[in-house]
Design goal:
Blueprint: H1 7-25, E1 36-43, E2 49-56, H2 65-74, H3 76-86, E3 94-99, H4 102-125
Helix pairs in contact: 1-3
């Protein structure tokens, strides 16, 4: 019987918190002027790899999402080094950043549903 909260899920939650703090306070690159949100961290079963899903509130300086992800992935070694100091784990996972566009997709779906309900209300009145 599997536990409701496995060790990997607890570690992924802790990684999510710590990585968010590191990105917000310790990355001094001026290209990171956008607000970066970490939506999910998925850790492999052997705790050697972590997939970190991020979203960007607004992008400045003509940087694309791909360029920001590339910058984050280049900084992953530094982030991992800071995690070593903050977490008491034998293995700190290798970090790979991915873009999470679920918020954008959800907003589009919500907008479409609102338009459909407005058309339905207009159609029922007429």
């Amino acid at each position: 019987m599997e536990k409701s909260f496995s060790r990997s899920s607890k570690i992924s939650q802790e990684l999510q918190k710590k990585i968010a703090i590191i990105i917000q306070h310790f990355l001094k690159d001026p290209r990171f002027k956008t607000l970066i949100t970490i939506s999910e961290v998925i850790v492999s079963k052997d705790l050697s790899y972590a997939q970190v899903f991020v979203s960007f509130l607004e992008i400045h300086n003509n940087l694309s999402v791909e360029k920001l992800l590339n910058l984050l992935n280049k900084a992953s070694g530094y982030i991992r080094k800071l995690l070593c100091k903050q977490l008491k784990l034998r293995i700190i996972p290798n970090i790979v950043f991915y873009h999470d566009d679920s918020f954008i997709k959800g907003s589009r779906i919500s907008l479409l549903l609102n338009k459909l309900t407005e058309k339905k209300i207009l159609f029922n009145k007429g």
